[in-house]
Amino acid sequence: MEKTSPSDCTCANGARTAPSFLRRIADTGVVRTGKIPLQSVLLFFVLAILLGGCGADAPKPAAQADTKPAAPAIPDEVQSAAQSLLGSEAQVLLFGDLAKNGKQEFLAANVVPKTPTNNLPGTIITRAVVVEKNDGKWGEVLRCDEHLKNEKGFLGMTPLTAITGWRLQYEQSEGQGLELYFTPIKGMADSHVLPIGVRWNPATKRYQSLDRSYEHFLLESPTLEAPRSTVR
């Protein structure tokens, strides 16, 4: 079979024609004697690059990083007071008008670090205190160590056995102030105990525990042998 070169081929519709953009250049007299001026060549390549870029996906702007408001710096006097009560490992968790009684308070705790052997959910503590400032001095108004106590004695619902670890949960509301929930997790035979709720009682002007409905305050007991749970 005889082989033909591209120059011998003919188009189905007759004579082969140049691309349209070259025809337009020839019609305007730019193409002369089979040579294209350098400016036209450069213009063609610039247009080709621009047109090729239009089909590419436009780069997407980088997602804006979520920015959290920085936590307020803990005042030196608050950190110092916390360390004097709980040692150098004390962590200040909250400070301000926590009880909504117009007085400055802070919540500090000895938080157990997360490790492969301590993978319990939530904030696990061994000790915690709520401290209030009166007449320029800081003083405890609530303590959690092996038991739950305030200046009047042991809080209602506190376990009779010594607790060496608690799960601490807390929240603040505009109406009721700081609400604390202590769940014994180490030292209790029953692992399905309910959290003990503690909140500021404006009637008695101190932190007291709540009954199981978390609606009524309970009186303190001076000793653990005869805990009182009278609704107040």
How would you characterize the overall build of this protein?
The protein is an alpha+beta fold. It has 2 domains: 16-51, no CATH class; 76-209, no CATH class. Helices cover 16% and strands 29% of the residues. The chain contains 3 helices and 10 strands. The longest helix has 18 residues, at 38-55. It starts with 19 loop residues before the first helix and ends in a 23-residue tail after the last strand.
| Helix run count | 3
Beta strand % = 25-35%
Largest sheet: 10 strands, antiparallel
Q: Which outline best applies?
A: elongated
Low-confidence parts, pLDDT < 50 over ≥5 residues? 1-26, 28-34, 227-231
Order of helices and strands: HHHEEEEEEEEEE
